[in-house]
Description:
Blueprint: H1 2-12, E1 50-61, H2 64-71, E2 76-77, E3 80-81, H3 82-95, H4 97-100, E4 111-119, E5 124-135, H5 140-158, E6 166-176, E7 183-184
Antiparallel strand pairs: 1-5, 1-6, 2-3, 4-5, 6-7
Helix pairs in contact: 3-5
Amino acid sequence: MLKRALSHTLRANSHVARPLGQWRPMSHLTHTDPETGEARMVSVTQKNDSKRQARAFGRIVLSADAFALLEKNEMHTAKGNALVVAQIAGIQAAKNTAQLIPLCHPLLLGVIDVRLVLNKSDSSVHCNTLVETTGKTGVEMEALTAASVALLTVYDMCKAVDKHMVIEDLSVVEKKGGKSGHWIAPNTAKTK
């Protein structure tokens, strides 16, 4: 029954991301035992090291007042400058992904880049992350974790001014390396 439900989900969502190259979705969940359904860590011991890269995107929409304070660089709270603190939080989060997501492998990361950009057209902060390593498994979770924690930190830093902020559009927009090769999500223009 689980295989049937997953198969339906994969078919229903096949329009979401158009992969490049030979990547195809798996027909089973890799972090669960197919017989028992119990959680398990995927073995990567037989894989070869390769260069891995992932990019993620997310944004937080703020009130006009909170955005204006960020824009004037006046969101200096007792905790520090909001966007600088958020950038550092995103970097720190990527390094600690395996401690936050139970079945992620701990990785030695070579590059973590977290960029926060003000977008005046919709009073939002866009977050773009890039994570790279050379290893046996990908860094998509690290890129997503960096973006989500950076945006959560913007929320934390701005909540005294705005209680109605919304974090949205969190997604992997590109990955490179490994068996599945290079993949780009459709409609990634917002991440530029």
